[in-house]
Amino acid sequence: MASSSSERDSPRPPRYSGAFEQLRNEISCASVRWGQCQGVLRHYYLSLSSKRDCSCQPHHSKTFEQLMTKKRCNNQCLLYFSLGAVILWFGLSISFIAALEKKLVEVKHENYEYNEKLKESVAASELKRRRRQGDELPQYPINHRHLNTAIRPLSDQAIDQCHKALWHTVDTTAYVLPNNESFVITGDIQNLWLRDSAAQIHPLLLPNTYNGQSLVQVDQKLERIVSGLILKTARLIRFDPYANAFHLKKRSRVTNFERKVLGRHGYIATWNYELDSACYFLRMLFFFHESFPNHPVLKERQVKEAVSIIMDVWIAEQRHEEDAYPRGELFDCVHCGKPYRYNPAELKRKGKGTMTNSSAGLTWAGFRPSDDPCVYGYLIPANMFAVVTLGYVVKLAAVVWDDESMVKKARKLRQEIDDGIQQYGIVEHTTHGRIYAYEVDGLGNYLLMDDANVPSLLSIPYLGYDYDPTIFVNTK
What we know:
Blueprint: H1 5-9, H2 17-28, H3 34-49, H4 57-133, H5 156-173, E1 174-176, E2 182-184, E3 192-193, H6 194-205, H7 215-218, H8 220-239, E4 245-251, H9 256-260, E5 266-270, H10 275-291, H11 301-317, H12 348-351, E6 378-379, H13 380-399, H14 404-424, E7 426-429, E8 433-436, E9 439-440, E10 446-447, H15 460-463, H16 469-475
Antiparallel strand pairs: 1-2, 3-4, 4-5, 6-9, 7-8, 9-10
Helix pairs in contact: 2-3, 6-8, 6-10, 8-10, 8-11, 10-13, 11-14, 13-14
């Protein structure tokens, strides 16, 4: 039967709708690739075309092309949406991982600090336990009131106070460590200052304290503390000869400012170069030798190396203005191999300090024993102390180490520094005449003052320097 025009223009009968519905379901499936979808579409199109007459084919061909165009557009949108979702997921994943990693670092740092505090607490508790048991430290210092009858005796109260002070210092600042080491902190700061630690145990080394002996000779535990401190200090000087204070344990975390400007890293607590710090070590070493001439610690390689390092630093710092620095295989520390420079906020000329005369013979210092920066680089009391302790080195090198080259080196350096003191360290005062200056630069500038800590001008007799009595009286 022929079809009318109205029938041709009307929508297709619903007998084909089920096939197209099935086609849409198959195309919408994400697991079917586009090539497979195209093949399926062609298959359905051919099967449908075979069931229709020719008059229907153009209409169905147009509908099929529209369907294909729509599906391609949908698939492209789906693809773009999928790509966008993947990129978004990837970005969120990176952000999440970064945040998680940051949090893990913070937690790790907090755990590290907690563990360090816990270790310190456990170590302190263990130390207190040992002290109660008397395992490591000596008992109450021996009463030596009646040693010298020529000296006016002190009152019982004064002697008791001195005994308590001496014991309190040992009890609260000395730590006996493994590897034959000891660690002596200063005051309320849990660090070892080269100057303070050696000064704190110096009363234990004074000769003729008890029946012609020093206290370290009387008590083996005191001997262990001092010999351990000598070895520990020698190793710290080897770690960095310009540092003046050290931690008990290495610091694993320091800022760039601390490392690059303040010189702090590892064991270094402060990197303020002070000439007197090494002097105190040399004095401790010599006085210990006086009590124990054949003690094994004196033969330790690191102890002799520390003495050599000290002299090489002092020789280099005689020419500080020329940017000299010590060289050799013993100078392999992080800051070695370059001139000493510190925080420009404390030392002028970008951390170098004020100008000095390299031919003065004196050796340079950046800081005073009070830890204040020097105005002029040649600190006279510290140079006097260096002269005294270099005399100790001459004796140690000859008697203990039998090293003639070290003897000559120490003697020559000692003479150069002393000549510099005589030429540049004495100035003419308009009222008091010739006096010792506190700091000079060897160029005619000088500073008339004194420091609260030793070495100072007032402590010249205590240092053991061969001073001029008249000049010293004028200086006072």
